[in-house]
Write a structure and sequence with these properties.
Subunit structure: Homodimer or homotetramer.
Order of helices and strands: EEEEEEHEHEHHEHEHEHEEHHHH
Function: Catalyzes the irreversible transfer of a propylamine group from the amino donor S-adenosylmethioninamine (decarboxy-AdoMet) to putrescine (1,4-diaminobutane) to yield spermidine.
Pathway: Amine and polyamine biosynthesis; spermidine biosynthesis; spermidine from putrescine: step 1/1
Shape: globular
Number of domains: 2
Family: Belongs to the spermidine/spermine synthase family.
CATH class of the largest domain: Alpha Beta
Number of helices: 11
Protein name: Polyamine aminopropyltransferase
CATH superfamily of the largest domain: Vaccinia Virus protein VP39
Number of strands: 13
Strand content: 25-35%
Radius of gyration: 18 Å
Strand order of the largest sheet: 9-8-7-10-11-13-12
């Protein structure tokens, strides 16, 4: 941040984006990372971890709806959902909208993120932390999977980039843990960055996931505050039909859910698995 209250992101070397800070709401070092929340006149409240934008009030719904509703509606009847990371509470908010889900387990390494976001980003969780189905565990996601025998229908890894504490959520051991802790017919999804600028991460994730899942791919969405083009989400299961679900089935499930989204709809879901050729060539 310079003297003119301009904050510059540090994710990429040589290129990037900047934000004007109207007011700094919180800035401290937690036990794991540098955590900052500030107000921007265009994007509302912005959360930053270790110099990288994680989420903003203005466009968070795109990311969180796609991370949640794509796997949840592709699965016929999820009952037990695991969220890894996601301390801002917005994935939890979306998952908790499904009344058929019996238990939601959330594993977040940094308790400070949960508490600070409750205070400064309350619209993200929208009261979901009070859901009686929630089991909140403060732990490293990789460690939790290695030590838990519990099975899940859906695992959503809402991790940071593979920097700092997020590194553990891109390893072979982590992906193996996800496979071991999924029920038959389960689905794993994770954010995998902006593929045009982070293609090495996408390729590495793809190769590692292929060791444990027979059907591995990506789906996409465009989130304005994630600089560099489309963001991709890892998709892994052992049943290819889950990724190739028919449009009429999606429409029926979405209608029956009674849920109304700001970004997600069945057509977006169906077409999000169409990937640019440059990414297909790399894979």
């Amino acid at each position: 941040m310079n003297a003119n209250n301009i904050w510059c992101e540090t994710l990429y070397s040589g290129i990037g984006q900047h934000f004007s800070i109207n007011k700094t709401l919180y800035h401290e070092k937690t036990n794991y990372q540098d955590l900052m929340i500030f107000k921007n006149m265009t994007l509302g409240r912005v959360m930053v971890l270790n110099g990288i934008v994680q989420t903003t009030e203005y466009d968070e719904f795109v990311y969180h709806e796609m991370m949640s509703h794509v796997p949840l509606l592709a699965h016929a009847a999820p009952r037990n959902v695991l969220i890894i990371g996601g301390g801002d509470g917005a994935i939890l908010r979306e998952v908790s909208r499904y009344k058929n889900i019996k238990q939601i387990t959330m594993v977040e390494i940094d308790h400070s993120v949960v508490e600070v976001c409750k205070q400064y980003l309350p619209k993200h969780n929208a009261g979901a932390y009070k859901d009686c189905r929630l089991k909140l565990i403060i732990d490293d996601g990789a460690h939790f999977l290695q030590t838990s025998n519990e099975k899940f229908d859906i695992i959503i890894s809402d991790s940071t980039d593979p920097i700092g504490p997020g590194k553990n959520l891109y390893t072979t051991d982590f992906y193996q843990g996800c496979r071991n802790n999924l029920n038959d017919g389960g689905i794993f999804v994770a954010q995998n960055g902006v593929c045009f600028l982070q293609h090495k991460t996408a390729i590495e994730s793809y190769k590692k996931l292929k060791n444990y899942f027979s059907d591995v791919s990506f789906y996409q969405a465009t989130i304005p505050t994630y600089y560099g083009g489309i963001m991709i989400f890892s998709w892994a299961s052992n049943h290819s039909a889950l990724r190739q679900i028919k449009m009429h089935t999606l429409i029926n499930r979405y209608t029956k859910s009674g849920i109304h989204c700001r970004y997600y709809n069945p057509a977006i879901h169906f077409n999000s698995f169409a990937l640019p050729q440059y990414l297909l060539n790399m894979l």
